[in-house]
Amino acid sequence: MFENLTARFEKVFRFLKGQGKLTEANIKEALREVRLALLEADVNYRVVKDFVSRIQERAVGQEVMSSLTPGQQVIKIVHEELIKLLGEKAEPLSLKGPSPVTVLLVGLQGSGKTTTAAKLALKLKKDGRHPCLVPADVYRPAAIEQLRVLAGQVGVPCYEPGQGESPESIVKAALNYAGSQRCDTLIVDTAGRLHIDRDLMEELRRLKQILSPEEILLVVDAMTGQDAVNVAEAFHKELSITGVILTKLDGDARGGAALSVRAVTGCPIKFVGVGEKLDALEIFHPDRMSSRILGMGDILSAIEKAQEAIDQEEAERLFKKLQEDSFTLEDFRDQLRQLRRLGSLDQILKLLPGTGMLKELRNMHVDMKELIHAEAIINSMTKEERRKPEIINASRKRRIARGSGTSVQEVNRVLRSFEQMRKMMRQMVGTGRSSGTKAAKK
Ligand code: GDP
């Protein structure tokens, strides 16, 4: 997603940076390109018009013309305006009020409502809440069963409607059910149609009245482009939605929906769905999305992903050992384990900007098999050998290779990597003691 848009923006920015002095004429030329790029990405034309005129106004003003690096300055403006367009800052769910708090999910059929209900339940459960799923889609035959199965996978209770029970009766009963299950949050999956439909809206309005939901979240499929915006406008008019969840952002949608929904409806995008798996729901961060679109990479998301995998305390412990120069093969093994937990670095590197050294990193694959072998080799050493690798002579190497089912060459390789790592770390610690400590503490 956004690849084309990003490429187009990069071209415009290269042009701007290449101009020593910016004039009204070359800014206009650059903005014409921006406009085309956005329209091609399926961004709503009204949104494009406003967006470009805001940038134009700022770009030909003082702030750019008197700047030493006018090209950079325009990029900064585009970045800031894009963040504004996407909603400034992440908007968390509002789950205040007496228990159970209700989140009503609405949207067209196939938008991803049922899947998103389960994803949201998982997210809230991870946050320490006790959600309960409520299937109020009585028209699509498999919908109730689908939600029940997903609830089982997520490990949260799911209300079981009786035969022929109406949506109104289901949600009333679910309120009592939540109490009996000690749930503090109801997530209600509602019916969808292929198009906006009077009867459906009436039904949703009745459910809203019964439940007084804290949140009415519209689930929209990002792949539907311009249509997503029309759908959002219609639902908002009828139900006063409190937020939007954009699904299928992992697909090859051109991104227009993500860029227009907020501006057209004034409703915040609260989450984005980025895959079919149940943990593929992310909080929407306008600033990160803007950076990603402009090819600046989404460094914060990448860091968060890495932090999830890396045990911070462990990292600090290792760093301390390096400072004290007591880094042993046992610590090296701990580090390899962390690396293994990171899994494929690809996912993280994809989020980073594709420049210079990072591009090279991106081509580097961590070979899982090699990591596992290295661990086995270190496991086959005696405690003493791990602490004092210099005692590992030829016959010890042969024994270690036999014990780990590897070869002497591989044992040598692990020892060499360990030495290299130790040397490199010593240098780092030696040259940047204070800044290094700070970096490790972050
Ligand atoms: P509903 O009719 O609105 O309840 O839609 P479903 O929850 O049944 O979803 C329709 C299809 O979209 C299913 O195949 C889901 O797996 C898929 N889906 C939902 N969210 C996402 C997403 O974020 N990414 C992708 N790739 N597929 C999704």
UniProtKB/TrEMBL annotation:
Annotated residues for binding of GTP: 107-114, 189-193, 247-250
EC annotation from Swiss-Prot or TrEMBL: 3.6.5.4
Residue ranges that the Swiss-Prot or TrEMBL entry lists as coiled coil: 296-323
Enzymatic class: hydrolase
GO biological process, one term: SRP-dependent cotranslational protein targeting to membrane
Catalytic activity: GTP + H2O = GDP + phosphate + H(+)
Region (Disordered): 428-442
Superkingdom classification of source: Bacteria
Residue span(s) of domain SRP54-type proteins GTP-binding: 268-281
Location(s), subcellular: Cytoplasm
PROSITE patterns, per the entry: SRP54
UniProt-recorded Gene Ontology molecular function terms: 7S RNA binding; GTP binding; GTPase activity
Cellular component annotations (GO), alphabetically ordered: signal recognition particle
InterPro entries from the UniProt entry: AAA+_ATPase (IPR003593), P-loop_NTPase (IPR027417), Signal_recog_part_SRP54_M_sf (IPR036891), Signal_recog_particl_SRP54_hlx (IPR013822), Signal_recog_particle_SRP54_M (IPR004125), SRP (IPR004780), SRP54 (IPR022941), SRP54_GTPase_dom (IPR000897)
Keyword terms of this UniProt record: Coiled coil, Cytoplasm, GTP-binding, Hydrolase, Nucleotide-binding, Ribonucleoprotein, RNA-binding, Signal recognition particle
Function statement: Involved in targeting and insertion of nascent membrane proteins into the cytoplasmic membrane. Binds to the hydrophobic signal sequence of the ribosome-nascent chain (RNC) as it emerges from the ribosomes. The SRP-RNC complex is then targeted to the cytoplasmic membrane where it interacts with the SRP receptor FtsY.
Domain notes: Composed of three domains: the N-terminal N domain, which is responsible for interactions with the ribosome, the central G domain, which binds GTP, and the C-terminal M domain, which binds the RNA and the signal sequence of the RNC.
Assembly with partners or alone: Part of the signal recognition particle protein translocation system, which is composed of SRP and FtsY.
Family membership: Belongs to the GTP-binding SRP family. SRP54 subfamily.
UniProt protein name: Signal recognition particle protein
Organism of provenance: Thermodesulforhabdus norvegica
Gene, per the UniProt record: ffh
